[in-house]
Each structure stands twice: as structure tokens, then as C-alpha cells.
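Example record used in the benchmark description.
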Amino acid sequence: MGAKTGFIYDESYFWHDTGNGALFLPPGGWIEADEHGESPKSKRRVKNLLERTGFIDELKVIKPRTATKEEIELNHDTSYIERVERLSNTTGGDAGDLALVGAGSYEIALLSAGGALTGIDAVMEGKVENVYALTRPPGHHAEREKGIGFCLFNNLAIAARYAREKYGLKRIMILDWDVHHGNGTENSFYDDPEILSISIHQEGNFPPNTGYSEKVGEGKGAGYNVNIPLPAGTGNAGYLYTLENVVVPIAEQFKPEIIIVAAGQDANVFDPLSHMLVTADGYGEMAKAVKSLAERLCEGRLVVCHEGGYSAAYVPFCTLRIIESLSGLQSKVTEDPFQGSTQGLPTNILADHQKEAVNRVIKVQSQFWNFEVVYK
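Model output (C-alpha cells):
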């Protein structure tokens, strides 16, 4: 089969224009114009690093296709889709709450969603074992009728619905490790027992007043929505503890037929929109754990789609480590170049309050799942 890990990207992803701003605010008043937080830079530099190191040659590069409007309608209202198209073709603007549309963004958003669909096809048809899609604009905040937080169309949710419709899958697991709550995915599948949605996020970050562990789903979907809010300052140890003690036990009981990951590398130690301490090597370990889970449960079928991550200098190294873990290969970047500046931080220490936060989730979810975990 050749390379067993696919890599999906398109130059158009880097042309989605979010304009000027400061972090996430538009310029004006006391806000001086700057580069917007969701600029192309951190994503383009992932591709650049793969090329510069030659590691891209170890991967099967796959060109994404454009999603059809009908495929977007699997998860979004037609009126909202047409609003994004109208803004894209005219003045641009906001398609919801901080969901910026620039000239041509509609077509790029269709291609971003199509990247996720291309990943589903590549894995399901055996072209690769797993795939990383460098999709942009991101999607996990987008709800059925509006965009939120840089997200236009919910790539992950559309991909899950597509996988169910085209391949007849009945157990699809979405794991969202973006530092912000995956509210759009939760909104899409809150009463759906066929889609297990797990979001690991910094508590209270964004969107406000969402992501509580008590939000477990409703009706037949009760227990299939898992929110894991982690306290600020959580690093590698806390994330790996979460995977081992919450995600793995639930996944082993759910037995997914495919795993889709919303890979936001914005829990990294240098990110301006979060307060977490995950390092590049930590992301590599997280990906390794999820890949092992996919190999045990669903023949290795794993589709990873890029979401957030706003440190242009560091996101490429975090993403490289993830792709290394997916492929099982080592790039020429044998050591994290930023490692010296993080050595004094408690990235690999599990603090008591971090463990307690995870254990609170276990208590909530224990009404639906069995956990072989001793906790206080």
C-alpha cells in the first residue's frame, strides 16, 4: 500500500481571509489593527515543516475534493449555508459569532469540509490506514444554523454524517482535543446514540457557559456526549490521564467502527488563546494512544482533522509529532527546539486538582459506562 498515513491539504486553505484583528477581535476603537489570531500562518507552517524536513515524502499526499452543498446540508440549515455564500460573494462579514467570512471563503469552506470527507473515503476504502487533514477554516464550533468562533461549517460533524450515510456505520466516535469546547459537535449529536462525542477542553474558556460535564446527551443519546473540562495549567500528564481513564474505557465499550479526531493544537504551552501546558511531545503521546485505540477497536481507521492552534511558531512542531505517531516514523526533528524553555514547567506532573477534575467526569459518566478506576 506504500505510505500508511495520508496527508490532506490544499493551498486554498491558506487563502481563507480573516482580515485584520487582535487575537479574536476586529480592529477599531482602542484595538489596533494586527494579524488576526486565526491567520493562515500556523497552518501553512505545518505544511512547510513537513516539506523542509522531507517528512512529507513518508506520507501519501491526497488532494481534497470540494464538498457539495447537499453534503453540507447533512449538518447545516440551507439558509445558513446560503448566508455564508452570500457574504463570501459580496462584502464578507460575520456568519455568526466571530465566524469570519472573507472573499471566496465559501468555496474554501466547502473544500475544507471536503478534506474531511476525502479522509473518510481514504480510510474506509483502504487507501491509507489513517490520515491527517490540514483543514481550514476549522469547524467544531459551527452549529446547525450559525458559525461560531472562526468556524463556518462543522467539518467533523459533516464527516460523521457522511460516513454513516455512505458506509452504513452505526458507531462513530468523535474525539475533540481542541482546547475549546466542541459545542457545535455536541449540538449536532446530543440525542444521537450512534455518534459518541467526547470533548476535552479547558474549563470556562470558549464558548462561554458550555462544556459542562453534566451535559451528557438526552433521550436515546444520553451518555453519548462526554464533556471533560480540565483546569487551566493542565499539561501532558493530565491529558494522558484523561485519555487512559475516561476516553479509553468508554471507547472500548462503545466499540467504534471509525474514530474522527478534532485536532486543535491550542492546548499547547505557547498558545495565546488558552492557558494549558501541553508540549509537542505530549501531543505525540496523545496521538499514539488514540492510534493504538483505533488499531484495537476499528482496524486502525482514524481520521484526524486540524482545528485550532494559534502559536504560529509552535503549532507546526505539535502537529509534526502527531503525524509522526500516526505513521509510526520519526522525522529529522529528533528534539523539540522549544524544549529548553518548557523544562521548568509542570507539564508532566499530574496535580491533585487536575486528577479530581477528571474523576468528577468519571462519576457523572459512571451511570452510563463502567470504569475500572479507583478514585476519591
